[in-house]
Amino acid sequence: MEEIQRPDPGFKSALLAEISQLRFFALSLTGHHDRADDLVQETLIKAWAAQHRFTPGSSLRAWLFTIMRNTFYSDYRKLRREVQDRDGDSAARLFANPEQNGHLDLDDLKIALAKLPEDQRVAVLLVGASGLSYEEAAQICGCALGTIKSRVNRARQKLMAHLAIESAAEFGGEFLAIAGSGGSASGEAA
């Protein structure tokens, strides 16, 4: 069992005697009175908790200044990684679609794809899901370019009807980024 050490009664007095010097040093580091006071308080708390590490006879002020400097640098490194957002504008611009809707939408898409005639399903999967060009899809399916374009367009129209989608504006997330960059949102007619 670890023995509990009692605080040194002289340690408290010595800490209190250094507060004015600590405030001066903290103000020189932070440049702001309120932040300096917080830094002094944090330094005193850390020093009190670690008083068993202080070597009697050495400079208490130097030890406290070292604690303060290290605390200041640690806080500074943390602040550099944080985004200042007092009015909440940055947080308001952050948005992520809930993941569970994506799973449900995918299930609905699978059901709608299964209702398509096989030639249309293959065509839309080759062009839409696999990212092949119409020419490549036509070659794979062994049909004319116009035929594959027609199949893809009809498949997209039927999928939109099965999924109760009236326009590309009803899609979100990545679809809008693709549609906005020149990708086809509603299908290409033959």
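[next item in queue]
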Amino acid sequence: MTTLFVATTGGHLAQLVELADRLPVDGASVWVTHDNEQSRSLLAGRDVMYVPYMGPRSVSGVLRTLPRAVGLHAGRRITCACSTGSGLALAYLPYLAARGVRCHYIESVARVVGPSLTGRVLRRVPGVLTYTQYPQWSDGGWRYEGSVLDRYRAVPAAGGTGDPLRVVVTVGTATEYPFRRLFTRLWQLLAPGGPLERRTGRTVEVLWQTGGTPVAGLPLRATPFLPARELSSAVARADIVVSHAGAGSALAVLGAGRFPVLVPRTQRHKEAVDDHQAQLAEELVRRGLALRADADDLTVEQLLASAAKGVLRDDDAPAFALA
């Protein structure tokens, strides 16, 4: 007997890793995801099968990956499969459900008011059980058993006073949707001799994790991608953290004990496929775990609010029951 954990990299994979120790499993486990710095770091020491990357809403990517699901089931005797999305869930769960495997799809925490396109499709697939992380839209088809956010609560930060003032800016691993607006505005605030240095009287040091965003023309030292553990370590040492409002980045920041300024990408600026990041940012604000800001209107006061609080993680969260 083997349990399959399958998720696209980014927020989907981060959530599944966060939930895995709360889920009942059958015997051994195997993970399926894409190969990048995040997945190799998060899944170090686990049994992992890497598959070619598929972009958002890629029907051709799903069809290309389906033969791998067939081969995996034949070779590993998969008896249970769990996924948090997105495209990889469509490539694996319908086939496995048709073969009698118990399949569970847990909708992303980013979907605060209703399911994603992937969720809507899988809800109609016989044999795939679907779960929401929000009780307000659970019903007969969508079970609520908890959320990845249940483990976190905000606390006052100790607060450093010496140089330098460490800042981490992170926008995740997505390559299809640049977020240059955020870097343009932050450079104005964080530049040497700029508003944050003048306000605090401290030297500002910035880690710019830029992902797939081109930043040519901005005088900053870009680090497109970092292994998850390195980014987590940098965030844990930071005084201020600014992040796009992606689920994976938000969880990474909370897990490192920091209270982020979350800046949602918008569909209007072609920074995301829809505006679900705004929903997640509002949910984290409601829980007291983050501050929300808009990319064009970020202020020094908002940045300093990040330094005023920290976040604690409870390792004894309740089990996530599977039907």
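[queue empty]
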